[in-house]
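Comment on the following before class.
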Amino acid sequence: MKTLLGSLYQVIYTMDKTHLIWFAVFALIALTLGILHTRIKGDENKLKLWKKASFVPIFLALIHIIIYVIAGKESIISFLPIYALALMTLIATLLGKRKIGYKVVTVITFLLSIACFIALLFMLPSNTYNFSEKSYTESFHLMAQAMDKTYILKEWKDVDFSALEEKYMPMVEEAENEKNLTKYYDAVKMFCNELHDGHVGVELDSNEETNNSIFKNNEYGLCMVHLDNDEVIAVNTLPEVNQLGIEDGTVITKWDGKPIKAAAESIPDMGVPVKENAEFLSYIYLSAYGNETVDVSFINKEGTEQTVSLQNIGENTTCIKTLTTYSHRPNAKSIEEALPWFNENFSTKMLTDNVGYLRLNSEMLSVQSIEPGDIFGMLTGNHKESKEIFRKGLTELKAQGMEYLVIDLRGNTGGLDEIGCALASLLTNDYYFGQGLGIRKNGKYIDVSPDHAVHGTGEFADIKAVALTNFACVSAGDGTSLYLSKLPNVTLAGITNPNGSNQAVGGAITLANDKIKVSYPVSLILNENDEPNIDVKADRISRNPVEVHIPFDKNAALEIFHTGEDYELNWAINYLTQSNT
């Protein structure tokens, strides 16, 4: 009960109270109508007035829609629990003359109101700001102020929002004078990228042109990856560069006249949380960065350095393909488009006679709807439904001869850490602190719901496992990576570290006539020391690094990007079977 109450307190404390007040008003009206009915149910004239009064919630709901959905341009879906309560109040009055019927409906309405309240807590953004009608300079200032007040990691990351505002305001002023939306978007994105937080996002309306954006991705016919030996090679090359002598595996030495390492360091800050991951990814981003023509130097087949000019041939495909392949996450523009991939979540199979496989794409029962199991799992700190799914899958694998297990977290989009704790609980006999739900008060972090933990059942503690992770494993995926790495029978492995972002989202800011949207975390997840769980500090050093780095040489790169083999998965199988023989 303490965990449940603490979880509710954290959710309510964190969110903007405006819509909770609206909900309270609707609930109070419903309660008042119910009390009045018991006193006037025998008076026909008063019942007529009472019925008219029952339309007040519907009238208020229309006002709410006008203010927040039409004028405020917020999603109507977030407010459905409020409107549902208004509708239930009206339906209840239709049975006003029926003594028993109204009592039954009143009880049902009360129970549904509780359900609506809980749903509202999970559907509402925690902090929403709409500055879309303000000028670029004014909205940028208001954005900086709002994030200074509500960004949950301000103290942890030593963020000086005033200094960031001052740094980028000249660029914003230029954008305003030029009426240049793209330049304003670039300024907002550069501002937010300095937070180095995987939960901070900036989106530009997809209908807007970005040809002049600093973050525009060009296509030069190749992508580059950085190997463990510090060499940089080309992958996913196109015929346009093949005919110039650059093929998959060709060593690239210079980009646009600069030594390749210096060139990678010169690209815009992409906001990657973990510095080590950022260095790995910078060569991929560099592959799409430059003018219409770039001079590229490489080692040709004769072993000498050669320089050629590459043309921008249009929309980028090679870098997107490289990122998609390595992240193990589809390049989808919507959840619907990614559904086939998400539907693999919780899936299991045998890889060999004795090596099982578990895929965890997301720590949610569904990505299309809010499931009761997810809500109660988060509130109680014990996700029973997912634990049963894991138990069933692992039991079936063990019946097929599983001695070793590969847990695939690559590209994990996150969800609820409690699901990660549920999996870890089956793989150990012991107790491990998972996460605590906290609040930020006067710059201090306070844990109000600490028992979201790993409670070992020991059912599969005899299984040796490798958990595969990567830079695209974020949020609750980050959490699952950490919790599994604590277990002595599980090894966390990857070419890169997990993303390094575990706080809960909920902050939303709208700018520039609803064309730019900023999202950021406002809800606190803590570790056993009352520190933000996992998220990097200003030094950007990973706080949940892989225990074993998977070697990444030329052969590995060509297996992944040229022949299309799952090199990391093959490595995990060999690691488990060879190191345990």
